[in-house]
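Notebook entry, structure prediction.
Reason for the run: the old model in the group folder had no record of what sequence produced it. Starting over properly, with the input documented here first.
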Amino acid sequence: MKKLLIASLLAFTSICTYGQDKEGKDIKVQTGELRFKCARVYLAFSTGFNNNTGALGLNIDVPVSKEISVDGGFGRSTWGNKFFVGGKYFLNPCHMGWAFGGGITYNSGLSQFVAERETVYKTQEKVLLDMKPMMNAYFAAYKYWKLGKGYNRIYLELGYSVAFTNDILEQLDGTPMSADGIAITKAFSPGGPIIATGIAFGIK
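New structure, fully documented this time:
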């Protein structure tokens, strides 16, 4: 009976030790995979409505910790060239899954811009416009998905952009625009809901 008890204890101890070793190995493997997924910098191309880099742009996203990254970029928009700087906080390590962030965008505007707009006489005429530079603040939520076996990812951005000023448009020449003509022109200015998507290539 005593020998049986001793043998049982030895067997139980061996099983527990094996389980701990196996669990430890699994953790090491998971940690290794986690490190493998983490990139030092991401180079991204994106597009969308009120996108941070305009209709089509390039941005660089640099992780500064496992939860935080800073980014910046440039592109072309309906209100001239567009630039931005910002930051994000990730809920998951290695900059995947959900993230929340914000930043500042700057649009260069368009000088001496010729467009056909409705006038106060309800006619469609060419007018000369000065679409002034604009600075906006934006706030957004992001969702990132891993793409392939490397460090690449795709993402969706949803948020809102707010302009710092309403003095954004001046008519330089032509018959004065109607309220509808002005509204149509301002509809192309940055500001309002953000819906954007992109692909980011991670570099280790």
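Summary: The CA atoms of residues 106 and 191 lie 11 Å apart.
The old model has been moved to the deprecated folder.
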